[in-house]
């Protein structure tokens, strides 16, 4: 009888001792895993975590459920930080289910330690895993499952970005406004709201309390509002008022905004100068670097092409942003390595599908290798993000012209005039398409005259109209137009065209004088050289070449799509002959 009582007491002691041992072991593991997490030793945490989870899955003691939940979360965090996103998503999902079970079972520890990690935090982590796997819709669904009253600014910001990228503007605006209510100086939110068409006064109403004593923030906001209202000249004036000592002098973000305004006004010379200033001030500044690469590549100055090489980052490619890939792509582009340029442009798009410079790079590359349909698709996609950018409209028009789709080209050019507020560049583009149909010559002349009236300094319009007058054998009228323009803005192209007109009138002395001036301004002007060599011979036919006058040599920059097509480089020893490695995919079939 006494033996039975002893055995019974021993059994009871064992039953009490085993859970305590399990708890002690579990707490010890959690402590060590927490230490690894704090020290960011994620690979070590993964190794230990996967073993610990298997070990403690064998234990069904309800007293260790909270510790198992903690272990699951730490393990998921380590997986995420070691780029194992699909497995991390699974672990977070399991942790979420465990937390719901613990709350439902009224587990004391989860009641005491509510701040360890919440449902909202776990769902945010799951959404990040989905984004890494390019599953945007699933990410939206996960965040939408969080009730509106439980959404933190971080959740609303993430949801707003996802709505924006999916084209759901109204819910995006609502989410961004919720962020501003709690964080009135969230500047990225401010910019997103302005981009989506919310008035500056409404955005400012959210910021009043926080920015009362910060005058520069109010001015900055006004500049942004003007920029997104397409009032670029006013925006430049506003930004310039901040680019002064005592305000935001030499601020890179300010300068990049100014450069973007100049680019949208088709003043690429000033845009380029400002972005070069940014690089001098902050050599590793990323924002605007892709636009700088575009402008350098499109410049007629070969020295600018060499500058691209200096912008290429010297660190590991896994750390490159989309802007870095665009730089590398344009470096390949100017060296006629078109396959590689397309590959690097695609790498940029994979990192940021809304990067318009990457889309422009890819489109221009397709134009070079005569894949006009693919080029048109990329130009159209870029126009969805920035419908008033001249390069996109010009490129799309050129791709349609190359495919002999003149009706679509005319429609795009006409719409460009509307989107760009009938800027001289857009009007000249429209005229260049109209001139391809003899029935539209009179209308084209009216459009060009309107462009010149709008800006008498716009050389492209002057040269195109002068060429048309020459084509109609109205040489005196063409000469008068060109001489007036030469007094305002002298260029090699203008003097070469003057010389051509004088030559057709057999005024060889005047022709020779202007050919020499043209060569003095640009020694590489081939038409001027040919003109001098042909003095005294019969003038050539009056063939109109409107595309040539859309990229006249007297301007500081030209446009990528105006470069020679791929057929012009077939015998080029430096052209790209080897396919760039692409993991078994055709680099020309990205969409």
TrEMBL record:
UniProt-annotated stretches for the region Disordered: 550-591
Polar residues composition bias: residue spans: 550-565
TPR repeats: 356-389, 492-525
One Pfam assignment: TPR_7
SMART domains listed in its UniProt record: TPR
Organism: Pyrocoelia pectoralis
Keywords, alphabetical: TPR repeat
Gene Ontology CC annotations of this record: anaphase-promoting complex
Gene3D superfamilies: Tetratricopeptide repeat domain
Gene Ontology annotations of biological process type: cell division; positive regulation of mitotic metaphase/anaphase transition; protein ubiquitination
Protein name: Anaphase-promoting complex subunit 7
InterPro entries per the UniProt record, alphabetical: TPR-like_helical_dom_sf (IPR011990), TPR_rpt (IPR019734)
